[in-house]
Amino acid sequence: MAASINCWKCLSRPSIAVIQLSSRVARVAASAPFSSTSTNLALPAPTRKAASTTKGVKTNLKINKKPRPKESRKPPATGERKALRKRIVLSNTNALEVAGMEDLSPEIVDAIAKDTAEGEAGSGLVGKVVGLPGATVDSLRAIEAFKTTQGWGLFRRPGTLIRKETADLTRALLAAQKEKSTLTLMLDGAKGTGKSMMLLQAQASAFAKSWIVLHIPEAQELSNGVNDYAPIPGSDLWAQPTYTAEWLAKIGKANNEILKTLKMKNTHNLPVPIEKDITLARFCELGSRDPDIAWSFFQAFWTELNLPGRPPVLLTLDGMSYIMGMSEYRDTDNKFIHCHNLALVKHFADHISGTSKLANGGAIIGSTSRSHNPISLSMDLAIYQALQRQAKQEITQKDPFEKKYDERATKALQNASAMMIGGLTKKESRGLMEYWAASGVLRQRVDEQTVAERWALAGHGVAAEIQRGALRMRI
Amino acid sequence: MPPRLNFHTAARSLTIRSRPIAATYQPRIAHVVSRRGFAEEKQPATGPNQDILPGVSEEARDMGDITGETKPEIEQGTPIQDILKRDPEALKKAPAVIKEELDAEKKAADVENTTFGNLLALGQLEKASEGEYVGHKFGLPDLPLPKDGNLHYRYDPVVDQVTNLLMAHGKLSVAQRNMAYILNHLRTSPPPTPNPLRPLLPGSPPASHLPLNPVLYLTLAIDSIAPLLRIRSQKGAAGGGAALQIPVPLGLRQRRRTAIQWILDSANKRQSRGSGKFQFAQRFADEIISVVEGRSTVWEKRSLVHKTGTSARANLMFGQRRRRIAH
Question: Distances in Å between the alpha carbon of B68 and those of A173, A177, A326, B55, B56?
């Protein structure tokens, strides 16, 4: 076998003659222009990368990034994050039990009512913190009276400060119960002064006195278009089926103790047949099952509550300015629906205006919200006028050049009384701070000087500001 | 061999200096205002350019005084007061009307010259002589002054330091809100169960006491993991371009700072379980709890630094040695 240049397996070296010959062939091939042999044999020319040289063509600038590291833990389930955010904690097992704290029993409610009354010996409860009994706490939790911002989670068990306004309100509630009259009240005050807390105290007193309590914790949920709505046939009203169903469920749960002792008396025109002689608790439960029937069930429930021999009713609403104008819902003509055309809101408005009365006595209380709330000129004016009326001052008339008044809101609120809630007194502030100190949460000496300091720094006793300064370390 | 005497240095101490080496400072321009006494409230301050020359006639009169020539009459007539001043006989024999007038003028001049401050002082002296307390409108503060009495030092130093390190984009109030959340989280979470393998600072209170004193809780966690030293890598000092690790002792604030940074790092790596604005604060608070319970990886970091420091302790005098050689 003749050794060739390319045969690497051959151990024999190629003879010089062969090398010379092969190089000569190559030279001939290169010099012979008409031979295609070498070009055919040659490898295909390496294609140039288009990216680097071609003009006008987009280059691929993508840098291969590292993929995001996968979470080793399972992410929170749907709704879990929100639940964590909205969770209401009512107990801190680290906090100390406050000795000698009384519970808000019916007797204590009576004592509170007598406290600032003229011609009565005070029970000395104003300026003290009273505890909420377990059953009341469950009911208040069911109607969503507690808020996440109120700092319940710092103390051993829920307690609330009795202040002068509390005593006044309790007295008015008890008078309404006694006379079977309807108290209509608007609560107002600066941000953080305790309007929602006053509502809560009214509700707690009502629960202690075996009233039936209905509460709308956030009025904006009724008007800002987050719930489904449907026209009620034969009227210009709109029902909010899901909200009503959930509300009925809450009412049934919160007032279960009383409602399960009350039986249906009348027969109502209901869309679904129900058993006879069922309790009102059961009736609420049935109504909450199907959103489509909830509104009719609520109407029947309300009629039942107003039958003679039923307990008094407390209907409360927080964030009143949200329901004193146009809602975010639209009608069939794509126009905004007025809030008072929403059936639930109209129910509240009719009662606070005094057109509908509570047959067994009770109260309708609306509270304003002063943080991030819509401005309702009519509501503000109505509150102002009510305060002037109560003080027997000259009543301010509405601005004739102002166009933003809402006639329906004015009409709804013109007969209601009002209560302005201001800062705590120094005595009340001291009671509150002593409670904090006794709970072990405030690590500071509580004396006249420190109380005066906190009181002054908190805008003359704005409760939330005192709390913020003392418990949340912000000054 | 005794050290050689250097005559130059020995002679230096013998020189007699008649003058001070540095001239005492003598300001060219007198500080007129600052030299004024407190009692001189009535006279306005005069600056260097406020010495105005007298009028022409006054100058002529002065010149006449010097040269003895006739001088212009400046005052039209000699006032009676001047005559009475010069002549005590005349004063004695003066009519009662003039005497009264003179007395009134004297009194008025006294009142005019008494300043408000002087009057106040006189009043207080009178009161003091009657044995009444004179002094402070709001009383004196109790001494010693409290540590947090100053506006700028109202928070605990550890709380202050953590707040500042929590702060992002210069938003101090957000950091303060987060700090408040952290402290309240420590307050409300169940008491920690410390790990005996990861001992906290000696003398720390029992774990059940911690939640109700959240500042102490935070301080204890931070001080327990604060490293005693840091490792400085001196480039090329180990020879052949290798870095030499030198342990450097840290002060209290620096130790705490390192610990807080470690906690912040591991809080950053945690995963949030909820939603809302206090997620980071929650993770930070959880990290504090896990530090006290000995579960945190920050403990590893601390022991690593300490181990490196121990093994590199031979390099401790690195800088000093070199300085001594150079000397």
Answer: 107, 113, 104, 19, 17
Question: Is B166 in contact with B263 (CB distance < 8 Å)?
Answer: no
Whether residues A154 and B188 touch (CB distance < 8 A) is answered with yes
Dihedrals phi, psi of A371, to nearest 5 degrees: -125, 120
Residues of B in contact with A473 (CB under 8 A): 155, 159, 176, 179-180, 183
Per the CB < 8 Å rule, is A94 touching B177? no
At A278-331, the pLDDT tens digits run 999 999 999 999 999 999 999 999 999 999 999 999 999 999 999 999 999 999
Interface test with B, best of A94, A156, A442, A445 (most B CBs within 10 A): A94
Residues A188 and A209 in one domain: yes
Contact call for B155 and A95, based on CB within 8 A: no
Distance from CA of A76 to the nearest CA of B (A): 6
| 3-state SS assignment for residue B75 | coil
Number of domains in chain A: 2
Contact A96 B212 (CB under 8 A): yes
**Residues A136 and A247 placed together within one structural domain of the fold:** yes
Degrees (nearest 5) of the Cα angle A59, A62, A63?
A: 135
| Domain, as residue range, for A443 | 427-471
Domain that holds residue B287: 156-326
Cα-based distances in Å from B211 to B158, B198, B207: 17, 19, 8
Q: How many CB atoms within 10 Å of residue B89?
A: 9
Average pLDDT score over chain B = 83
Dist. CA A230–CA A243, nearest whole Å: 12
Residue with structure tokens 């309702």?
A376
DSSP secondary structure letters along B19-49: S-SSPPP--SS--HHHHS-TT--SSPP--TT
In-domain check, residue A240 = yes
B114 and B179 assigned to the same domain: no
pLDDT tens per residue, range A155-174: 999 999 999 999 999 999 99
Q: Whose CA is closest to A183, among A369, A418, A386?
A: A418
**DSSP codes of every residue in A385-422:** HHHHHHTTPPPPPPPTT-----HHHHHHHTT-EEEEE-
In order of A186, A386, A389, A390, the CA distances from A394 in angstroms are: 20, 11, 8, 10
Complex ipTM: 0.81
